[in-house]
Design a protein that fits this description.
GO terms for molecular function: demethylase activity; oxidoreductase activity. This protein has about 350 residues and is of the alpha+beta class. The chain has two domains: about 10-100, Alpha-Beta Plaits, CATH 3.30.70; about 110-350, Jelly Rolls (Sandwich), CATH 2.60.120.1520. The protein contains six helices and 19 strands. It has helices at about 40-50, 75-90, 135-145, 185-195, 250-255, 280-285; strands at about 15, 25-30, 60, 70, 95-100, 125-130, 155-160, 165, 170, 205-210, 215-220, 230-235, 240-245, 265-270, 275, 285-290, 295, 300-305, 310-315. The strands form five sheets. It has a six-stranded antiparallel sheet with strand order 6-15-12-19-10-7. A five-stranded antiparallel sheet has the order 1-5-2-4-3, with helices on one face. A four-stranded antiparallel sheet has the order 11-16-13-14. Strand 3 and strand 4 (about 70) form a beta hairpin. The longest helix is centred in the N-terminal third of the chain and has 14 residues, at about 75-90. The protein is globular. The chain starts with 13 loop residues before the first strand and ends in a 43-residue tail after the last strand.
Length: about 350
C-alpha cells in the first residue's frame, strides 16, 4: 500500500533489494530496535562509532519498535563502507542492504549533515534571510489562499505567466493562464533590484508542502526555463537537499581533467527567506526535499515542520538549452529528460511531479 503524504515512516516503506541488484544506500539492521531496549541516541552513537571513514555518516535513521531498524546514507558506496564497519564492530547485528519505496531520505536528519545557511558551499546558490517581513509574508499567504489551487498532482500548486506541463516536464502551450499576480509585485521588484537573477522573471509557480511531504531530487528542466530560479519560503522553514552528480559538464570530462566528485549539501531555508539558484547551482545540482516531519539544524536543534508555501519565480525559455553542463542538459542530451510514469494526487511515488522548490 502506498504511503500517503505526511504519514509517519514505517518498516513497510522498506523492502529487500531486487534480485541481482548491487549495494543500495539503505541498510537493514536486524537485532536493533526499541523492542531490544535501544534508543535513537544509542543507535546513532553506535553508527557513528562504526562509520568512522569520511563521508560515511548516517543521514537518516528509522528505529523500529521491535528488533528491526533501517539506516540511510548519501549513496550506495557510502552505505557499502558503512556496512563493512558495522559488521566488524557489531557482531550481534545482522546487516543487509534494503530499498526504500520512494527513495526519499526520511526519518531523523543528523546535525552533521546540515549546512549552515551562512556558509552555503554550492556554486551559484545564495540564501537571503528576512527577504520578506512577517507582515508581508502573512499578506502573501492570505492572497495565495484566496486563489484557486490546482490539485492535479500530489501537492497543490498555482501557476501564473506560464503553466508547467508535469507530464512532459516543459512549459505548457496555450491555456488560460493568469498573468503574474499584483500581490507579488513588490517581491518581483526586489528580486530584480537584488541583481541576483540573470533574467527578468515572467513565470510563477506556487507550491504547497504540508508537514511530511517532500519532492525527489531533480534539476528543473533546462530547456523550459532560463538561467536563474528564485524561491521565497513562506510559513515553515525546512532543509533542502542539493546533490551534484559525478559528471556535471564538458569542463569535467575534457581530456586531462578528472571528473568532479559527487557532492551533497543540505541547506536550511528559513521562513521569509529568498533562495536563488543560478549557473552551476541551477543547471548541474539536483535539489529536493526529504519526506519527513522534522528537520535538524547544524546546532542540533530539531524543528518540527508546519505548512510551507513557496513562490518560485523563473523566466520561460523559448529555445533548447545550450549550457556548459551537457551531461545534465535535455537540450544537448534529450535522454537526460526522464518523464514521470504516474501523475495525480494518488500517485505512489514522490517523484511523480518534480519542478518544485
Amino acid at each position: 500500500m502506498a504511503r500517503e503524504p505526511g504519514e509517519p515512516l514505517s518498516s513497510a516503506d522498506f523492502r529487500p533489494p531486487k534480485k541481482g541488484r548491487g549495494p543500495t544506500r539503505h541498510l537493514y539492521l536486524a537485532n536493533c530496535g526499541r523492542g531490544r531496549g535501544d534508543s535513537e541516541e544509542a543507535v546513532l552513537e553506535a553508527l557513528r562509532a562504526a562509520t568512522i571513514s569520511p563521508g560515511s555518516e548516517v543521514q537518516a535513521l528509522y528505529l523500529g519498535d521491535a528488533g528491526v531498524s533501517y539506516a540511510s546514507f548519501a549513496d550506495a558506496e557510502t552505505a557499502k563502507r558503512a556496512k563493512g564497519g558495522l559488521e566488524a564492530a557489531l557482531t550481534s547485528w545482522v546487516i543487509r542492504y534494503a530499498e526504500h519505496d520512494s527513495e526519499g531520505t526520511s526519518g531523523v536528519l543528523l546535525p552533521a549533515s546540515v549546512a549552515s545557511t551562512a556558509h552555503v558551499e554550492v556554486p551559484g546558490l545564495q540564501v537571503l534571510p528576512y527577504f520578506v517581513s512577517d507582515e508581508e509574508a502573512k499578506a502573501l499567504l492570505a492572497a495565495v489562499d484566496a486563489n484557486a489551487w490546482d490539485t492535479t498532482i500530489k501537492r497543490r500548486v498555482q501557476h501564473y505567466g506560464h503553466a508547467f506541463d508535469y507530464a512532459r516536464l516543459t512549459i505548457a502551450e496555450g491555456g488560460d493562464v493568469p498573468e503574474l499576480p499584483s500581490f507579488c509585485g513588490g517581491v518581483v521588484r526586489r528580486i530584480a533590484e537584488s541583481g541576483l537573477m540573470p533574467e527578468q522573471v515572467n513565470q510563477l509557480t506556487i507550491n504547497e508542502y504540508e508537514p511530511g511531504v517532500g519532492i525527489a531530487l531533480h534539476v528543473d528542466t533546462h530547456s523550459a526555463f532560463e538561467d536563474g530560479i528564485a524561491a521565497v519560503t513562506l510559513g515553515s522553514g525546512l532543509v533542502m537537499e542539493f546533490r551534484r552528480p559525478q559528471l556535471i559538464g564538458a569542463a569535467c570530462s575534457s581530456a586531462g581533467s578528472p571528473p568532479a566528485e559527487a557532492s551533497q549539501k543540505n541547506v536550511w531555508l528559513p521562513p521569509n527567506s529568498l533562495l536563488v539558484m543560478s549557473g552551476e547551482a541551477r543547471y548541474a545540482w539536483q535539489h529536493g526535499i526529504a519526506w519527513r516531519k522534522t528537520d535538524c539544524l547544524e546546532e542540533g536543534e530539531v524543528l518540527p515542520r508546519s505548512r510551507r508555501v513557496s513562490l518560485t519565480f523563473r523566466r520561460a525559455r523559448g529555445r533548447p538549452c545550450d549550457c556548459r553542463w551537457p551531461s545534465m542538459c535535455d537540450g544537448q542530451n534529450p535522454e537526460t529528460l526522464v518523464l514521470p510514469s504516474r501523475l495525480g494526487p494518488n500517485s505512489a511515488t514522490e517523484s511523480s511531479a518534480p519542478e518544485g522548490n
